[in-house]
Amino acid sequence: MISQPNPGHPSRLFSIAVAAATALLLTLGMPGRIGWWPLLFIALTPLLSAVRRLPPMRSGCMGLFCGLLYNIGLLYWIVIVLGRYGGLPPWISVPGMALLALYMGSYFALFCLLLNLVIRRSGSGKGSTARLVLAAPILWVGLDFLRNFLFSGFPWMDLGYGLYRQPLLIQAADLGGHQLVTFCIVLLNSLLVWLVDRFPNRVSGTVVTRRIPAVIACVLLACVGGYSFLRFQQVSSAMETGQQTAVGVVQGNISQDEKWTAARKEDTVNRYLALSRNTLENQNVDLLVWPETALPFYPQQDPLMGKVFDFVQDENVKLLTGAPYFVLKTQKKAGLKPVDYFNSGLLINSSGKLAGRYDKQHLVPFGEYVPIRSYLPFLEPLVVSVGDFTAGSTYEPLQAGNIKVGVLICFESIFPEISRREVEAGSN
């Protein structure tokens, strides 16, 4: 039976302050301008501590406000994409970003609501905090998993990604993916809440079961941490003795609103060729990598592609580059596009020949295609300006010599199942 709410609930101002504090700590801890990752281990403690002190609906509203603030800080770039590159006015692009942030924030709301209901079933004493220890990470990761698939999936900035520069801490991801890393981050936050709640008001330890979740949490964290440490040593040793390929990465840093103009096409190619020659002069490289759409034209029909092929052949190097690509349909049907356009990765072998093509499979909603656009006619300018791409369908690696490349293009890097399937298909 769910216990009745405590009449002495904190004020609404308290809920707003807690939501803002957690949103700020998360924003500062996640990759970005600050990216101070240790904050992730305490960022959720204000929210978790407050959830059990509020009625369910207040908890949900607090979570929604927190999620909205946090995701606005992460998704501000949507306004730039829709406005500068999609040609949409601010009165469409800003609400569009806000709606996406609101959708992402709804998972925070659902998390706080469900967690509140779970811990209230154990009453308002120590048992409520004890139950929170394990319930919080389970609910958080469960909702993350749902967000990975719902509405084509948008697992943007899951907490586990915040530790991407700390390889010693994330090796257990080979057991449970980045979700296991997220689980441990939330588990540590909830364990801190339990500790803070317990020590100022120590009571008789007769109810041993109230300590069991905390003991389980400590054991889990110790096991994951120990495994990660040992696995890091194994990986480091394997990297020293394993097969090696020297890769040179070239980034032209050309503004998006300049690279697609006809006047800048040749300048763009020349910049990449000059940077690549400089790279090859200073180091021995087996594979050069240029970024997504480094070539701002269709390779099949632009004479500038000949300069790229000649460069690769003259330098005797392999090149992986991004470029748009189109395929004419052999069978034309009424109501369907006669041409499929792809956001592709092209592998050019050292003979100056195209060795393979990978087409991006997980496209960016409202960036590379418009979902249910027949119901959203006001977004048609976005399709014209940004693109209406077709998703690829193969995980086969691009092969040149002993190099078998598994390609992830931009947005795809947050979907681990793609890289997993590419490795299973033979990518090395």
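Next protein, fold it too.
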Amino acid sequence: TTRIVRETLYNMEFTEVETPILYKTTPEGARDYIVPSRVHPGKVYALPQSPQTLKQLLMISNMDRYFQICRCFRDEDLRADRQPEFTQIDIEVSFGTQEFMKCLAEEMLRNIFGLDDNFTLAQMTYAQVLADYGSDKPDIRYDLKHKNVTALFANSPFQTFKNLYDQGGMVKMMFLPGEKGMPSRKQIDELPLVVKPYGGKGVAWLKYDGKDWSGPIAKFLDDKLTKFLQQVREENKSTSGTYFFMADANEKVVHDSSDALRRSLAKEFKLFDENEYRFLWVTEFPLLEYDSELKRFFACHHPFTAPMEEDYAKFYSKDVEQIKQTRAQAYDLVCNGYELGGGSMRIFNQKDQSRMFDVLGMAEGEVKNKFGFFIEALRFGTPPHGGMAWGLDRLIMILAKTDNLRDVIAFPKTANATDLMAQAPSVPGDDQLKELHMNFINQSTTNHTSTNNKE
């Protein structure tokens, strides 16, 4: 796979550049792994979460097209498709556009997956995928699209959903055609466990067997809702089926619960072909996320992502609500429910970059300390540029038709980021600690005693 990637990019006149591993912290959102410096007491290097600022500096330095197959490190909680160190196909292009990045992704996919020459990526906006699937990385090998049915309960006799309508909450509905399967009562009773981890309080449901309705909310059916549910059956060319409803005052809970339920039903009723690959290009992500408790913004991607051209007025607005609505020139590549890669067009002038740091609440001293070298480089003239990065390990996992990265990585880490074979991480020796000018505070377990350590 790496050979195919390299050949594809070489043929498109990309230059492969190796960037440093021992570097400065990068703004990728996760915790850094840090390396104490022996020759600079009290200072540390950070292992790169990605070569983000480095590849942008290459564009500023007049490099046209860069790529690298690089190791990255993120100190974050692990799961089946995440490891603390991973390999990424890293790409950056000067004078590119979002359409160019999409075409580049299509060419790479054609070569890696052996797709037809006429293959093109299906494309949806972030708002569309959230509405239809409740997720920004939906598996589109099967239907089970969501429908926002909140308005249908404005005057409903079902008081629970009517109250949510009055409170500005959300009700989503999903239809499983009877031809695909009719869930048993036992299967339905287990559904609350599917949505509980996402804040869901339960799953309301209705069954129609082609003649009669059943289910706990069947007694609340009115003419308006019944007519709508009939239209849904007709759209699906089905004479029977089960309707599932997810509702909450918090829209995120509804989206997340609906997504979890959709994936669970697809697996339970075998609604997809395990040998099929379906790709999706998702665009127009939010640029910023607002923390109402801290009353400040955070970058959804990283602080170098450019706003969409038509949203610059919102980006420069003094109104918090307007800033919240700013969309990013960001894009993700999705395959079978996994985020395979993602990227964005970058901010390429000092004024917009300063505005971004200001919106993020970063003081001038903090900006200078973290990004002084980068801000200085922007002053010398920067071409419009953008890039993306693909998770190579995740790509191999998908090609191998497994759902666990450990199956495709040599010497993988466990769920708590340990290497059982080498017994890493391990306790450093006294001499190492002394050379590195280090002490441990509240060290819970040691394999030796040391006057340098504080227990």
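About the second fold: The first strand starts at residue 15 and ends at 16.
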